[in-house]
TrEMBL record, chain A:
The lineage of its organism: Bacteria, Thermotogati, Thermotogota, Thermotogae, Thermotogales. This is ABC transporter permease. It is a multi-pass membrane protein. Residues 88-277 form the ABC transmembrane type-1 domain. It holds the Pfam family OppC_N.
From TrEMBL, chain B:
The chain crosses the membrane at residues 9-30, 100-122, 134-160, 172-191, 226-247, 275-298. InterPro entries: BPD_transp_1_N (IPR045621), MetI-like (IPR000515), MetI-like_sf (IPR035906). Belongs to the binding-protein-dependent transport system permease family. The keyword Iron does not apply. It comes from Fervidobacterium thailandense. Residues 94-290 form the ABC transmembrane type-1 domain. GO terms for biological process: transmembrane transport. GO terms for cellular component: plasma membrane. This is ABC transporter permease. Gene3D superfamilies: MetI-like. It is found in: Cell membrane. It is a multi-pass membrane protein.
């Protein structure tokens, strides 16, 4: 009972230390706010859109920004603002699942490689080398080419090229945690390997993984839009920023607004994740702080 | 040193093997069975069986893999769509992609190093802030969107540069900028960090104390040492550039390997996808290995490791 309480107290104070360090970082706060705003928009977006994002209205096709349509309308007369808002949901859903899947695979492989070591480690690391030999977008294209476009397949594509970085980071972190006295102590009192990995090593090896996951959210959003731009993204008529920009390519002269707003939406949220990731890195790993 | 080089080169063998097997396998399991795709719609069962025999798809997996490998080098592998030898089709496009990548590297390294050095020398000034803001935005901008914006400004409004195609020097400027600018952002960030590190060393203080002009100290002493990690990152950017090239080529209609692969995805030309991705991945691996070796040559501390 008492031990339990202590543990809670300890966690609480670690969180507080991290929050206090985060507060001092203006970029980190700005990033956090941007990410939170996008997240809220992604969740409640479909209730706040001024127009239905998917329904065509050919009478108001290709209208430049005006009071009724602040971001203008597209080829089918759909409101660009509504499509940009709806796109947030698409990007967030896919990237959250993709990063979660990548973290899970990476944690499993990284923990086993780091904890077991020896030839198991060697084999797993060479296996990762093969995946890292592919430029990321190419691997994603190959996977979407096999599985076909669609949300779930994009999640898989992003997870496949992201998990090696998580596995490597986890492995390095596990190796450094492994040599701590409390791990030796757990071994001495006869804890099983599984329990040592899950209860003693993983929780203490997580902070670099959290940082990487934040940064990877940005990469995932960039990849989703890149696939969309290449025509390998989500299926029409679902709104997705990259797909919107692919359509805009043909109307650069007559309707330049189509190519502006979805792009700004991407840059802002990716910037947010990058700022947040950098700030988390400084807060969680103070020793590695920027020289 | 020699053992390091040999070890690094030997490592290429398992990687090449793994990459080629993976390329071969992932597309072997393509849904819709390749023979059916080749035969097209409305093909009879016999047609499909014939194609399986002609293309060797009825052979055991390892025989197909070996045929695939041999086919790449002999140029026997043909595109399903055009019937041409893939080697023949891919060669000029490979040149196109490499041209694009090199032009971008020139842009990204000159601009990146320049901004990074300025930011470090004038640390915490407006120059530093501006350079780092540029670096952050550059690293968060999708390559293809930057391409669209550049077309909008230089081709649509100013009408000074072409928006696509491949005719003469002018047509490579926008694609190279599109690919080079985001990568220069990364180079700038690293140059700044590396330069700050170098400037805080004792030998710099000593040199300044001797009365050597500041400009000379910065460029001759600090920059020379600061550039070692930067060279590595520029090399590693090559992979980023190969990825970005796929998108840039699509924006500008630049005839390169990336666009060749994307087109093949739409026509389900699975042999072209396999070979295209394999060649790009191998280029990436070879460049990374050369960068590692170059790094060892530049930084003597690493040679023993």
């Amino acid at each position: 009972m008492d031990e339990n309480k202590n543990e809670k107290l300890e966690r609480y104070s670690t969180l507080r230390v991290v929050l206090r360090r985060m507060k001092r970082n203006k970029g980190g706060i700005a990033g956090l706010i941007v990410v939170l705003i996008y997240f809220v928009i992604a969740v409640i977006g479909l209730w706040i859109v001024p127009y239905h994002p998917d329904e065509p209205d050919f009478e108001s096709a290709l209208m430049p920004p005006n009071p009724k349509h602040p971001f203008g309308t597209d080829l089918f007369g759909r409101d660009v603002l509504s499509r940009v808002i709806a796109g947030a949901r698409t990007s967030f859903t896919i990237s959250i699942f993709a990063v979660a899947l990548a973290v899970f695979i990476g944690l499993v492989i990284g923990t086993i490689a780091g904890y077991v070591g020896g030839w198991v480690d060697e084999v797993l690391m060479r296996f990762l080398d093969i995946f890292m030999a592919f430029p990321e977008i190419l691997l994603a294209i190959a996977i979407v080419a096999i599985l076909g476009p669609g949300k779930i397949n994009i999640v898989i594509a992003i997870a496949v090229f992201s998990f090696p970085s998580f596995a490597r980071i986890t492995r390095a972190s596990v190796i450094s945690v492994k040599s701590n006295d409390y791990v030796e102590a757990a071994k001495a009192i006869g804890e099983s390997d599984m329990s040592i990995m899950l209860r003693y090593i993983l929780p203490n090896a997580l902070s670099p993984v959290v940082v990487q996951a934040t940064l990877r959210m940005g990469t995932a959003i960039l990849t989703i839009s890149s696939l969309g731009f290449l025509g390998l993204g989500v299926k029409a008529p679902e709104a997705e920023w990259g797909t919107e920009l692919a359509m805009a390519r043909s109307y650069l002269e007559s309707a330049p607004w189509l190519s502006i707003f979805p792009g700004i939406a991407i840059v802002l949220v990716v910037l947010g994740f990058n700022f947040l990731g950098d700030a988390l890195n400084d807060a969680l790993n103070p020793r590695l702080k920027d020289r | 040193m020699r053992s390091f080089i040999i070890k690094r080169l030997l490592l290429l063998i398992p990687i090449f093997f793994g990459v080629s097997v993976l390329c071969f396998l992932i597309l072997y399991f393509i849904p819709g069975v390749p023979a059916k795709i080749i035969a097209g719609e409305g093909a009879t069962k016999e047609d499909i069986e014939n194609i399986r025999v002609v293309f060797g798809l009825d052979k055991p997996l390892y025989v197909q893999y070996l045929r695939f490998l041999r086919g790449i080098f002999t140029g026997e592998l043909r595109s399903i769509k055009s019937g041409e030898s893939i080697l023949k089709e891919i060669a000029p496009r490979y040149v196109g992609t490499i041209q694009l990548a090199f032009s971008s590297i020139i842009i990204s390294s000159t601009l990146g190093i320049l901004l990074g050095v300025l930011a470090a020398v004038y640390k915490n000034s407006w120059i530093d802030n501006l350079a780092m803001a540029f670096a952050l935005i550059g690293a968060s901008t999708p390559v293809f969107w930057l391409g669209l914006l550049l077309i909008l400004v230089f081709a649509v409004y100013l009408k000074v540069l072409p928006s696509g195609g491949r005719e003469g020097f002018k047509s490579i400027i926008l694609p190279a900028l599109t690919l080079g600018l985001p990568s220069s952002a990364i180079v700038a960030r690293l140059t700044r960090a590396s330069m700050l590190d170098a400037l805080s060393q004792d030998y710099i203080r000593t040199a300044l104390a001797y009365g050597i002009p500041k400009r000379k100290v910065i460029f001759k002493y600090a920059l020379k040492n600061a550039l070692i990690p930067v060279v590595t990152v520029i090399g590693l950017q090559f992979g980023f550039l190969l990825s970005g090239a796929v998108l840039t080529e699509s924006v500008f209609g630049w005839p390169g390997v990336g666009r060749y692969i994307v087109d093949a995805v739409f026509s389900r030309d699975y042999v072209v996808i396999e070979v295209g991705i394999l060649i790009t991945a191998m280029t990436f691996v070879l460049v990374n290995t050369s960068v590692d070796l170059l790094y060892a040559v530049l930084d003597p501390r690493l040679r023993k490791g």
